[in-house]
Design goal:
This protein is α+β, with helices and mostly antiparallel strands. The protein has a single domain, classed as NTF2-like, domain 1 (Nuclear Transport Factor 2, Chain: A), CATH 3.10.450.100. Helices cover 38% and strands 33% of the residues. It contains 4 helices and 4 strands. α1 runs antiparallel to α4. The termini are far apart. 26% of the residues are buried.
């Protein structure tokens, strides 16, 4: 369980750190919109939120989550409590809590992602 949880978190972090999402008015809102689209398997929405060079990277974590949902009736991924940890004029770090239930066991962890502000919108960013 711990290894699979760590694998999923690593995939989510790789994915979130490797993408630039079209953004919103706030760093926390942008991060929440991005994670929600990814975990719900909304491929078109995720691709819409990605830079062209990163859209293929989006497929792997979404397929992993889809596979877990199909093969484990207890599997559940939740993200909550999105908070801005650090923010400057054009950079921010957002933390949020993850809760993954797999095979009836639940693990929780805090995750952070970087964002940049471009053209007045906050974007999830690898370069943040």
């Amino acid at each position: 369980m711990k290894r699979k949880y760590s694998t999923l978190l690593a995939l989510l972090l790789l994915f979130t750190l490797g993408l630039t999402a079209c953004g919103g008015a706030s760093p926390a809102g942008t991060a929440e919109e991005f994670i929600k689209a990814m975990t719900e398997g909304k491929k078109e929405k995720v691709i819409e939120l990605c830079t062209e060079d990163m859209d293929k990277l989006a497929e792997f974590p979404m397929e992993y989550i889809k596979s877990m949902k199909e093969n484990d009736d207890t599997f559940k991924f939740e993200a909550s409590d999105f908070k801005v940890k650090d923010e400057s004029d054009n950079k921010a770090t957002v933390t949020f809590k993850t809760k993954i239930t797999e095979k009836g066991k639940t693990e929780e962890e805090e995750v952070s992602i970087s964002l940049i502000k471009k053209d007045g919108k906050w974007l999830v960013s690898f370069m943040g």
